[in-house]
Amino acid sequence: xxxxITCYPTYGGSGVVATxxxxxxxxxxxxxxxxxxxxxxxxxxxxxxxxxHGVESSNYPLFEFDMYTxxxxxxxxxxxxxxQLDILHMHYAIPHAVSAYLAxxxxxxxxxxxxxxLHGTDSTLVGLEPxxxxxxxxxxxxxxxxxxxxxxxxxxxxxxxxxxxDIEAIPNFIDTDVYAPRxxxxxxxxxxxxxxxxxxxxxxxxxxxxxxxxxxxxxxxRQQVPVKLLLIGDGPDRTECEVLTRExxxxxxxxxxxxxxxxxxxxxxxxxxxxxxxxxxxxLSALEAMSCGLxxxxxxxxxxxxxxxxxxxxxIAEIGDTDRMAxxxxxxxxxxxxxxxxxxxxRKRAVEVFDKNIIVPRYEAFYERLLA
Length: 372
Ligand code: GMT
Hints:
CATH architecture of the largest domain: 3-Layer(aba) Sandwich
Number of helices: 15
CATH topology of the largest domain: Rossmann fold
Bound molecules: ligand GMT
Helix content: 40-55%
Order of helices and strands: EHEEHEHEHHEHEHEHEHEHEHEHEHHH
Distance between the termini: 12 Å
Strand content: 15-25%
């Protein structure tokens, strides 16, 4: 098949999933065309079946607002027409699904099939804004196929938008050969020179991630266990988080690492992952950690319980219950036998349920059904 993929190319789970999907599809023999305003950051090596088409927005002075949706539409039309694509797969509905709808109208409905994958806030937050809601509902109804990254997101979308369409829940996936435990890792000595335990969190530091809860939990764990905290990523809450570490006087045991390329090495050097989010349709970062053999302490929100199984691959607590999260963390970090069981279960679940070789064929089958 010839597949066009549009996503947000910057840091973020939806862009990661879209890029990894494109690369995996290319490995499986398909021709993949990324169509977006910048090269996706994970598209960092040459592949002879992968192409990138940049979308340029017009900066004509009369236009006070960016015309990206229209510029993308034109580029989609051009690429479908001249590269003879079969499928346009839009990741994150707004505004990508709107552009795909317009492109299909221009090209003729029989000349291209459009797929929209919902990732989270496109459906649960942005799409619900009064200015977007009718557009969101319309474009989902008029996509040839719609998928969501969790059963939670599928059900929530169908009920909130009162849609009478099929949405297939296809979970996010991971390359479990890349995200894998490592025997020895230089980062462990670097971050925990006295053999302390390591708790890790990665996110975009937006308020929904509740990174302050990670720090509050850490402070409670630290009273009982020698432990370090690694915070990976950057975003609006970072300064507040740095202030909190000083207020709690834990700043010497917390490292803010910012955005990192060596994510797998750092995860593999750590012991426990925390995801205390108040909104999460899936929780790709938790899956990345699980695949490296880290148990996860998370909230029960959204699609997280479809990834992290309570008392099996980690523990689940209510939003903001940092006392409970700390109790769970201490429990795992002070009981080696129990830790090993959870760590093995986390890795096993990543490999057996979410490996890319299991999930990517589901997208292929989805496309094939649309084209049949
Ligand atoms: O929706 C967002 O907040 C952005 C989006 C992204 O691009 O990272 O995150 C969502 O998509 C990820 C990949 O499918 C999921 O793992 C995240 O859970 C989801 N975020 C939210 O639902 C808040």
